[in-house]
Specification:
This protein is an all-alpha fold. It has eleven helices and two strands, in the order ααααααββααααα. A hairpin with a 2-residue loop joins strand 1 and strand 2. The radius of gyration is 31 Å and the shape is rod-shaped. It is a lipid-anchor; GPI-anchor.
């Protein structure tokens, strides 16, 4: 569900051309972009389990076990009384408090690990073997914990999806060039791959598909939205996107899932070259018309 997944699909519009036709000629690709928008703005389905915390809990119990079978020389030390020289050095510096807690719990004999009370064992070969196993287990858990990836939160995923919708800053840019690019029509594909900035945001591509010079294009929505569908400045493009978003067919999405995004992207790819016009044979075009140049306004209905 990362932003890169969605943008990689939108970036296939390296020759995306703004295309204009009769009312609703671009309804299908517009609706597909709306579907992607609906998925990307839904609440992400994120596993919020804090595995690091759970591992820490298990590690603490293993530490108690380790203390219960440690050799007498270590177990009988005074962990409570400060010892300046000893306590300033590792491993005492990092572990003294935990060792003291473990010893107290073992001596109390009431702590259970998976239903079994942790108590002090008498010296024996079995205790020595158990100590070695517990020590190795604790070390392995600590190493695995270091390699555990940090848990992604709902906010993390939402931030990445917002980048796919609005561009690198993750918010609708009404004056800069992170959501829309108006110079020479590059935001809509320009005259070819070299100049194309198509795919910088979903908002950008939706406005490219549905705008024209006078702002009254009907190819996406079936009827003009006043004269608001213009892509000549970032401010006007932002207005156009807001109006187009309001017209989107809405779907109920309780959660944004990876599967939902994959399905939306598959549908998007299926709309490329969708009109089977001659120019589309050699160019990757989103929309209806037979044109290989797009500047965000030149192709009128």
């Amino acid at each position: 569900m990362r932003q890169a997944i969605l943008v990689s699909a939108l970036a296939t519009l390296y020759l995306s051309k703004q295309v204009k036709g009769a009312a609703n000629d671009n309804a299908r690709p517009y609706n597909v972009l709306c579907a992607i928008l609906n998925v990307a703005t839904a609440t992400p389905d994120v596993d919020t389990t804090d595995y690091s915390a759970k591992i820490s809990e298990e590690l603490e119990m293993v530490r108690h076990l380790n203390m219960s079978v440690s050799d007498d020389g270590f177990f009988n030390q005074d962990f409570k009384t400060p010892n300046t020289d000893r306590d300033a050095k590792e491993p005492w510096k990092s572990n003294k408090a935990a060792w003291e807690k473990s010893k107290n719990l073992v001596e109390a004999g009431e702590t259970k690990f998976h239903g079994i009370k942790i108590t002090r064992k008498l010296a024996s070969h079995e205790r020595a073997v158990a100590a070695a196993i517990a020590d190795e287990t604790a070390s392995t858990i600590q190493q695995l914990q270091k390699t555990l990836k940090s848990t992604k939160t709902t906010a993390d995923v939402t931030a990445e999806l917002n980048k796919a919708i609005y561009g690198a800053n993750g918010a609708l840019d009404k004056s800069g060039d992170t959501t829309f690019v108006t110079q020479s029509g590059a935001g809509c594909g320009g005259g070819g791959q070299g100049a194309s900035k198509a795919g910088i945001s979903l908002a950008n591509d939706m406005v490219c598909l549905c705008s024209n010079t006078n702002g009254q294009n009907t190819a996406c929505t079936g009827a003009a939205i006043n004269s608001d569908l213009k892509y000549d400045t970032s401010a006007n493009a932002a207005t156009a996107f807001t109006k187009l978003r309001e017209k989107c067919p809405m779907h109920i999405n309780l959660k944004a899932t990876a599967a939902g995004l994959r399905n939306a992207i598959t549908s998007f790819i299926g709309t490329l070259k969708g009109s089977a016009k001659a120019t589309q044979a050699g160019n990757t075009i989103l929309g209806y018309a037979d044109a290989d140049t797009c500047n965000g306004g030149a192709n009128a209905d």
